[in-house]
Each structure stands twice: as structure tokens, then as C-alpha cells.
Amino acid sequence: MDATTLFIIGIVAAAGLLAIGVFTVAGGRPKDETGITAPLDRVALQRDRRARRERAARSAAAVAVLSPPETDEEYDGADEAPPPVDPMLERTAVSASQLGVTRRGFFNRALLTVFGIFLGQFAIAGLAFMWPKLGEGFGSPINLGNLNDLRSEIIQGDGSIVPTFVASAQTWLVPMPENAIAGSSFEGLPVVIGAGGGEPGLMALWQRCVHLGCRVPSCVPSQGFECPCHGSRYNFHGEYEAGPAPRNMDRFAVELDDADNLIVQTGQVIETPRASTKTIQYPQGPSCV
Question: How many other β-carbons are positioned within 10 Å of the β-carbon of residue 289?
Fold first, then answer.
């Protein structure tokens, strides 16, 4: 099962969980078809009825005091007056379909639905963030073109270097002579390709400064990279020279395809410590920063 299939399965699973959550919340709290809500606590209901009867009795007594009977017959009839009727005993049961959704139920469902949608979006965004990029672009292998054409573009006729910047790979391409690899910080790492037969290989340096991530431009006069943010400096092999940077510039793994095209693995970043022995002279002229 390839990565694309796994990613699609993850998205479908997250969408299914979201749908289940929404339908579960939409179901709401079950209601009693014979009344407004599910049965209340019997003790609480009896207490409410007793309180209502007491209030009704007090109201009747107050009315009797304010309007005393004018004849003895009215006094006698007052003693035989029926007790007040409890409104709760005369209520008409309303079915759930007649009642519909209460305001509290509506707000509860709305709140839980919004929360469920948020969780679903968060799950999908998390999968998209953590999953490796499956298409083209930064984070995937990028073809930069023919190795020999790139090499002739970078190395000038007088032997100086003008690095080539490839925006899609966020990469500075620089040459690395074969005899400089042994004993360097890059020996044994897949960061140099195409060295041999007297021809230098090429390295792909990540454009970002390892101090705080600023983009590091090249400085052709000094033959190095100089960060304009905090002054970190590197030679044209990306080796640390000065400033607050903790290590060399990061670089990507590189390889050649069958047509000698340079492939930069922008998803595979390789870090190297500050080099004790430098593989190229710096500076070779005035600095740019």
C-alpha cells in the first residue's frame, strides 16, 4: 500500500468520524412522546405542587379579607367553596413532535455541531500537515536539469564561482572538488554528486540561515554567503565562518537520474557541524554585509 493510498484512507476516516459525530449530536436528547420532556423527579414534582396549592390558598384568603361577604348565606357558602384547582393538574400533555426543539436543545445541538466540525477540520489539517508531500514542489524530489549544464553555469572562466539559485527548491547550487571531500564535514554524506574525472561535483545548500532562518544571499566578491539579518557568514561550500550561526548551512541530499539530471531531495535535510578545517578560502574579496 503506497503513501497516496494511506493518505486517502486517513482523509476518508476523518470525514467518517466527523459525519458520525454530527449525526450523533443532531439526534439530541431523547424525549418522552407522552409529555414535554422525560419524567421529572417525583419528590420535586410533589414539592412544586404543594407550593402552588399554598400560594393559591393564600391568594384566596387575601381576596376573602379584601371582599368580606355581606350576608350570612354568603358566609355559609364561603365555607363550602371548592378548593382552588392546581394548574399543573389541568395541563395538557404535548408530544415531542408538537413541541419541536426547545431553545436550550437548539443551542446545545448548535454548539456541539460547531465543535464537531472544528474537530473534523483540525483532524484533516493535522493529517495534511504531518503527512509528507506526495506531489511536486518543495519537500519532494526536484529535477534541476543536466549536471554538466549546471556546472558550466556556476563555474566561471576565471575559476570564480557564481552560485545558481533555484527558487522551487530553495537551493543554492555550488561546486565541490573531488579532492576536497576527503576529511571534510561532508565525507560519507549524500550531499555531493558528480565529482570525478577532474570535474567537481555539485552541492545543494538550503537558502536559510541556521541561526534564525533568514534567507542568505550569495556574495560574489567575497565568494561566500552572508546573512543580512545578524551577520552570520559562510564560505561557498556553506561552511561556517563567522557570526551567531551554530553550524554550517544545511544542505539537501542529491542524486543523478539515468539522464544525468541533478535531483535534489528537498525532503531530506542534512546538518553538519562547524568545520575545523575549511575546504575553500574565505573571504576572497570585500564582503557584502
Answer: 17
Proportion of the chain above pLDDT 70, given as a percent: 73
Position 136 confidence tier, pLDDT thresholds 50, 70, 90: low
- Dist CA 270 CA 275 (whole Å): 15
Q: What is the pLDDT of residue 26?
A: 59
Distance CA 269, CA 210 (A): 12
Q: Enter the pTM of the model.
A: 0.56
Average confidence (pLDDT) over 135-139: 74
Q: What is the CATH number of the domain that holds 195?
A: 2.102.10.10
Mean predicted lDDT score pLDDT of the chain: 81
244 and 188 both lie in a single domain = yes
Count of residues in the chain: 289
Whole-number Å distance between alpha carbons of 272 and 192: 13
For residues 39 and 93, the answer to whether their CB atoms sit within 8 Å is: no
DSSP, res 159: S
The verdict on residue 214 lying in a domain is: yes
Q: Which range of residues forms the domain containing residue 233?
A: 141-270
What residues contact residue 169 under an 8 Å CB cut-off, 6+ apart? 138, 142, 144, 204, 252, 264, 266
Does the residue 58 lie in any domain?
Answer: yes
Q: Is residue 118 part of a domain?
A: yes
Whether 90 and 199 map to the same domain: the answer is no
| Helix (H), strand (E) at residue 73 | helix 72-79
When divided into structural domains, the chain yields a total of 2
Residue 283 included in any domain: no
